[in-house]
TrEMBL record, chain A:
Protein name according to UniProt: Translation initiation factor eIF2B subunit delta
Chain segments annotated as transmembrane: none
Xref: Gene3D superfamilies: Translation initiation factor eif-2b, domain 2
Pfam family, one: IF-2B
Stretches with biased composition (Low complexity): 12-33
Record's keyword terms, sorted: Cytoplasm, Initiation factor, Protein biosynthesis
Family: Belongs to the eIF-2B alpha/beta/delta subunits family.
InterPro entries: IF-2B-related, IF_2B-like_C, NagB/RpiA_transferase-like
GO molecular function: translation initiation factor activity
Major place of residence: cytoplasm
Subcellular localization: Cytoplasm, Cytosol
Lineage top rank: taxon: Eukaryota
Source organism: Mycena rosella (Pink bonnet)
UniProtKB/TrEMBL annotation, chain B:
Pfam families associated with the record: IF-2B (PF01008)
InterPro entries assigned to the protein according to its UniProt record, in alphabetical order: eIF2B_beta_subunit, IF-2B-related, IF_2B-like_C, NagB/RpiA_transferase-like
Record Gene3D superfamilies: Translation initiation factor eif-2b, domain 2 (3.40.50.10470)
Family designation: Belongs to the eIF-2B alpha/beta/delta subunits family.
GO molecular function, one term: translation initiation factor activity
Keyword annotations: Cytoplasm, Initiation factor, Protein biosynthesis
Localization terms from the record: Cytoplasm, Cytosol
UniProt source species: Mycena rosella
Protein name: Translation initiation factor eIF2B subunit beta
Domain of life: Eukaryota
Oligomeric form and interacting partners: Component of the translation initiation factor 2B (eIF2B) complex which is a heterodecamer of two sets of five different subunits: alpha, beta, gamma, delta and epsilon. Subunits alpha, beta and delta comprise a regulatory subcomplex and subunits epsilon and gamma comprise a catalytic subcomplex. Within the complex, the hexameric regulatory complex resides at the center, with the two heterodimeric catalytic subcomplexes bound on opposite sides.
From TrEMBL, chain C:
One MF annotation (Gene Ontology) recorded for this entry: guanyl-nucleotide exchange factor activity
Compartments it resides in: Cytoplasm, Cytosol
Residue ranges of the TM segments: none
Assigned GO CC terms: cytosol; eukaryotic translation initiation factor 2B complex
Natural source organism: Mycena rosella (Pink bonnet)
Subunit structure: Component of the translation initiation factor 2B (eIF2B) complex which is a heterodecamer of two sets of five different subunits: alpha, beta, gamma, delta and epsilon. Subunits alpha, beta and delta comprise a regulatory subcomplex and subunits epsilon and gamma comprise a catalytic subcomplex. Within the complex, the hexameric regulatory complex resides at the center, with the two heterodimeric catalytic subcomplexes bound on opposite sides.
InterPro entries named among the record's database cross-references: eIF2B_alpha/beta/delta (IPR051501), elF-2B_alpha_N (IPR042528), IF-2B-related (IPR000649), IF_2B-like_C (IPR042529), NagB/RpiA_transferase-like (IPR037171)
Protein name (database record): Translation initiation factor eIF2B subunit alpha
Domain of life, per lineage: Eukaryota
Length: 457, 370, 323
């Protein structure tokens, strides 16, 4: 229930940082932008007032906790809007001294980082399974692009089954309005992933295309079937194909280096091991999430393969995968030993850049320096149209209350702790992206929709 | 040998320091350099010698002893080398009058060595001290007696240099950090801390500190900087690449600066320098000149072949994993010279390419192996 | 005396490299010279070195030796009573130096061995006495394996491979064109040199530049080994600024008569016409023997006076000849 007590966030669903650039977002974005401006103005005035009281310059007026709510909708994809608000600030508060200016400037630089907003009050009719899911999202109990997408779609199945079309309305027209607040609620727990965005867009298409004349229960069953198909085709089967393709690139004696934990990479490594390949794995990991430990657990507890019969002779089970574990700063020492690097991804962009867990770009960069091939395993449904140039513009911060280390106390007024969750790996550092349509060079990522035979995903 | 060693107070002092070094009771390059210097001063003031060679042998012996105790702490060897260099210089100034006849040993191999870069020794002072006599059979201590005062002076100079090293490194801080810049640093380095705080007296800027796992020295650094009124962000190592596009400058500390202009530095430095290089962000290293080491990096990947405690990386709370997994926790990175833009030292700013010359000027070649 | 014949004779000793042979030839010249003054002696020496250079197809390494000896002679403090004593002294100095110089390879080997870690794969080029010495020294304490380039046109890589294999070092000859293919397996590159020049760069058997560029792009260290008598006061601006360059190198053959091709297109394709047959000798004739490796491609130069960065080499050269 903790989430419910916290501040309501006013941002509508599809305008958060991670939302796919969709057409429906322009109108609410404008509304909240003015809100953001107003808030910023208030901050300035408060700051000026404190400055007049002649506080020592070191004492920041903005305690980390009172950091303005991230002005998410005003994200860098709309630079003109941001600039406008900035210039307005400059004229409205000319009395601020330099120290104050630099303080607020810092805040502004990081302001677009989507800090997770804590659950809005239950606005409207939120299905209990969505409430639960939102809680799991906000506490990082369910984490990872695939897991979040599957969990969302599964929850939507329940929502759809429990839904009855109100009188004088049709399912194809009304169901989406019923789902919207649910989505909003999920997004308020944690910004939406590209995968969720893509899946929801597909779902919307299916809903609006459902037959008006179909009995309601049949239509709902059909939608649930479509959702199951989506999960099966785009995620589960895709993963199997990726496993198969990536396994072919693992040879006996290889040393595979991977970073953090990706569900696909984990499956690839386990299935290569199951095929009897003798290779070792280096897991590189970093705070704040330290997901690599999970991967280590999965790899070291790989089910003891029993004796296998091959060519009429009984073969002993292969030894467990030899694993090495290190934190990110030790990467340069280990990269020379690796024969290939296999990474996961959060989303793919049409310029070939891969948006993934923070730290991935460093691994790819070092691998490139040492001419170690870098494979990124990624299902095509993670494809996001649009170009991304750096991982700073669009990012998400891990909630510091979850990942604060014991030894740090942020009592210092000038000290802030930021835990960005993602970074962007430039295409130049990637050798190939392993998708279910094959290995593709990053330069051809934009052809994925064509490879799938459709215009839009 | 051992009993003889611990007999005199001088040797006790040497052994005492060697012991502390071996147990890592003295950490930090500057503290080690200071301790070494104090012991050397003690040794020189107490020991008896009647010619130059004896003195050099004594000091080398002490140096070797200390270096063996902690071969990873390069500032010990550096201090010994520096003292030897100063001793020779003082000796040459004192004996300039009588040493002119050395031309008779002129040969082609000597001629080749003429090319060796070294600091132009200042012209001998007008009054040449002709009183310096080596191996005087009547009075074996006369050499030591006449030389010791100048030697003490020379050591005092080195000591002064060490004591003012932070001030001198950060002297020009405001020329390197400009208003509104975003600076990235990592780990805990006293030199960098002093540099950044000094710059904060003149400029308003922001520092991002990487936590620098597994030692998490960055957290102490962030505390120290924010306490000094600098707006500070503490970020995990993984965010390095994502933030780099907004960083104006990367400022690093060094463990040892090597002869080719590369350096050993805390793990994570290479990653930061590489990411900075990829973004064309300048990388600046702040270090005192006592970190100049006339060595090369022999092993490219494992910086100094020094490893930390694996339990820092994978604690015993992960009991089931610990015995199934190899854990690697190297102490240092080797950062190649091409990734470094400048060294800011207590004696001026230098590009990596001139470190070689600097080292040739600071130490004598014959001391590279103690 | 015939200085060229003397030079050839000196070179017959397997241990004596061209610069040392040149120094020895000049020493002989000095001993037999009738010069009565320093000026005459230096003049005679310069003439001798010019004649050596004219005879040699590749004057660079001879140049380095001559330059060193002549510079030494001019700087030698000559306050001796009689000039013939001075000449004898110079002869003695020269001979002592050559004797000393023969120990340099060992000294360089000892420096370089520290940089070779256990179990490393080393790429070397052609044949070099100092590289051989280093590899054999490394073999005593470390496990090493070696790739050596064939080094066309002279094919000296085979000689290296035979010597290394005889010493029990695993060694494979690779094609000059396979260097890029092999580079990812290599830990470090070790080459000898004909001369090390003022820019800090290196002149060595043709192909070294290729290796250096490939090593650089794969971030592998490229080490050069050079005795200090190979330090040469020369600043090549490009490959074509080397003294060894001549118009024949890389020249195009005179055009084959046009009507021949037009008239019989089929015969032009099938190389039946004897005049258009390309032989190995012909290829070698139009190709350089040595190339110049830029200093930015070199990690370190190991020399008997220590391990030097390319910048350090040029500081030395300036100090020796200008100081």
């Amino acid at each position: 229930m903790a989430a419910l007590e916290l501040m309501p966030a006013a941002q509508p669903a599809l305008t958060t940082t991670e939302a796919p650039p969709s057409t429906s977002s322009s109108q609410p974005s404008q509304k909240s932008m003015s809100k953001a401006e107003r808030r910023e103005l208030q901050e300035k005035q408060r700051a000026a007032k404190i400055a007049q009281k002649q506080q020592p310059p070191g004492d920041a007026p903005n305690k980390p906790k009172s950091k303005p709510k991230p002005v998410a909708p005003q994200n860098p994809t709309q630079p003109s809007g941001a600039d406008a608000s900035r210039s307005k600030d400059a004229t409205s508060a000319p009395t601020m001294d330099a120290a104050e200016m630099s303080k607020s400037r810092n805040l502004r630089i990081f302001s677009h980082f989507g800090l997770p907003k804590h659950g809005p009050g239950l606005k409207g009719d939120i299905h209990p399974c969505i409430v639960r899911l939102a809680l799991q999202f906000s506490e990082f109990k369910i984490c990872g692009a695939n897991a979040r997408c599957i969990a969302t779609l599964t929850a939507f199945k329940t929502v759809i089954q429990d839904y009855t079309t109100p009188p004088n309305n049709t399912l194809s027209r009304h169901l989406m309005t019923h789902l919207s607040p649910q989505i909003t609620h999920l997004v308020s727990a944690r910004p939406m992933s590209v995968t969720m965005g893509n899946a929801i867009r597909q779902l919307k298409l299916e809903i609006s295309g459902s037959d008006i004349d179909m009995p309601e229960q049949d239509a709902k069953d059909l939608l649930c079937q479509k959702i199951d198909d989506y999960i099966r085709d785009r995620i589960i089967i895709a993963d199997e194909v990726i496993q198969d393709l990536a396994c072919r690139k693992i040879k006996d004696g290889d040393v595979i280096l991977t970073y953090a934990r990706s569900s696909v990479v984990e499956k690839v490594l386990l299935s290569a091991h199951k095929q009897g390949k003798r290779f070792s794995v280096i897991v590189v990991d970093s705070r704040p999430l330290l997901e690599g430990k999970e991967l280590l657990k999965a790899l070291t507890s790989a089910p003891p393969v029993s004796w296998t019969l091959s060519n009429d002779s009984l073969l002993p089970p292969p030894p467990p995968i030899p694993c090495t574990y290190a934190l990110l700063p030790a990467l340069p020492s280990l990269i020379t030993e690796a024969t290939s690097v296999i990474l996961g991804a959060h989303s793919l962009h049409s310029n070939g850049a891969v948006f993934s867990r923070a730290g991935t770009a460093l691994v790819a960069l070092m691998a490139k320096q040492h001419s170690v091939p870098v494979l990124v395993c990624c299902e095509t449904y993670k494809f996001s149209e649009g170009v991304m140039l750096d991982g700073f513009g669009k990012n998400e911060l891990a909630p510091s209350h979850l990942f604060r280390d014991i030894s740090t106390s942020s009592q210092e007024p000038n000290l802030e702790i930021l835990n960005p969750l993602y970074d962007l790996t430039p295409p130049s550092c990637i050798t190939a992206v392993v998708t279910e349509v094959g290995l593709i060079p990053p330069s051809s990522i934009s052809s994925i929709p064509m490879a799938l035979g459709r215009i839009s995903l | 040998m051992a009993s003889e060693v611990s007999n005199t107070p001088t040797q006790r002092a040497v052994e005492n320091l060697a012991w502390k070094l071996r147990r890592r009771q003295i950490v930090g390059s500057r503290a080690t350099a200071l301790e070494t210097l104090l012991v050397l001063r003690h040794v020189i003031s107490k020991s008896r010698f009647s010619n130059m060679e004896q003195l050099v042998t004594i000091i080398r012996g002490v140096g070797r002893r200390l270096v063996e105790a902690q071969p990873k702490e390069h500032s010990v060897g550096n201090t010994v080398r520096k003292v030897l260099h100063h001793i020779r210089e003082e000796y040459h100034t004192a004996t300039r009058g009588s040493a002119a006849a050395s031309y008779s040993g002129f040969s082609i191999s000597k001629f080749v060595l003429l090319g060796q870069p070294r600091k132009n020794t200042p012209l001998p002072k007008a009054e040449s001290k002709g009183t310096l006599k080596e191996n005087d059979p009547d009075d074996p201590d006369s050499f030591a007696r006449s030389l010791k005062p100048v030697l003490m002076e020379a050591i005092q100079d080195v000591l002064d240099e060490l004591e003012t090293v932070y001030d001198n490194v950060s002297k020009n801080a405001q020329n390197h950090i400009h208003s509104d810049e975003i600076i990235l640093t990592l780990g805990m380095s006293k030199t960098v801390e002093a540099f950044l705080i000094s710059a904060a007296h003149h400029r308003n800027y922001t520092v991002m500190v990487l936590e620098t796992a597994p030692s998490y020295g960055g957290r102490d650094m962030a505390q120290a900087l924010s306490a000094a009124g600098i707006s500070t962000f503490l970020v995990p190592d993984s965010s390095l690449y994502g933030l780099m596009s907004r960083v104006n400058k990367v400022i690093l500390g060094a463990h040892a600066i090597l002869a080719n202009g590369g350096m050993f530095a805390i793990t994570g430095s290479l990653l930061a320098a590489t990411a900075a290089h990829a973004h064309s962000t300048p990388v600046v290293v702040c270090a005192g000149q006592f970190k100049l080491t006339p060595l090369w990096n022999l092993y490219h990947e494992y910086g100094a072949l020094d490893f930390g405690d694996p339990s820092q990386v994978l604690g015993f709370e992960e009991g089931s994993l610990v015995d199934k997994v190899d854990v690697v926790n190297p102490f240092y990175d080797y950062v190649q010279p091409n990734l470094i833009d400048a060294f800011i030292t207590n004696d001026g700013d230098h590009p990596p390419s001139s470190i070689y010359r600097l080292i040739k000027e600071t130490y004598d070649d014959e001391d590279n192996e103690l | 005396m015939n200085i060229w014949a003397t030079y050839q004779r000196k070179l017959e000793d397997e241990q004596i490299s061209p610069p040392l042979a040149a120094i020895l030839s000049l020493v002989d010249l000095c001993a037999t010279s009738t010069a009565g003054t320093m000026f005459e002696l230096v003049k005679a020496l310069n003439e001798g070195s010019d004649s050596l250079k004219q005879h040699s197809p590749n004057p660079i390494s001879i140049n380095a030796g001559c330059e060193l000896f002549i510079a030494f002679v001019t700087l030698f403090p000559h306050d001796s009573a009689s000039f013939s004593d001075l000449k004898m002294e110079l002869v003695k100095q020269g001979e002592t130096y050559v004797r000393q110089a023969l120990t340099y390879r060992r000294k360089i080997g000892e420096l370089a061995v520290d940089f070779i870690k256990d179990d490393s794969v080393i790429l070397t080029h052609s044949y070099s006495r100092v590289v051989m010495e280093t590899l054999l020294l490394a073999h005593r304490s470390k496990r090493i394996s070696v790739f050596v380039t064939e080094a066309r046109p002279r094919g000296l890589g085979v000689k290296t491979a035979q010597a290394l294999t005889a010493a029990g070092i695993p060694c494979t000859v690779i094609l000059d064109s396979a260097v890029a293919y092999a580079m990812d397996k290599v830990d470090l590159v070790l080459v000898g040199s004909e001369a090390v020049v003022e820019s800090g760069g290196l002149i060595n058997a043709v192909g070294s530049l290729n290796i250096a560029i490939i090593a650089k792009s794969s971030h592998k260290p490229f080490y050069a080994l050079a005795e200090s008598y190979k330090f040469h006061r020369l600043f090549p601006l490009s490959q074509y600024d080397l003294p060894s360059h001549n118009p024949r190198i890389l020249s195009f053959p005179p055009p084959i008569e046009q009507d021949n091709i037009l008239g019989h297109p089929s015969s032009a394709v099938g190389s039946e016409v004897p005049s258009s047959r390309i032989t190995q000798e012909e290829i070698a004739k139009n190709n350089p023997d040595v190339d110049y490796t830029r200093p930015d491609l070199i990690s370190l130069v190991f020399s008997d006076i220590g391990s030097l960065t390319p910048g350090g080499v040029s500081a030395y050269l300036v100090g020796m000849f200008a100081g």
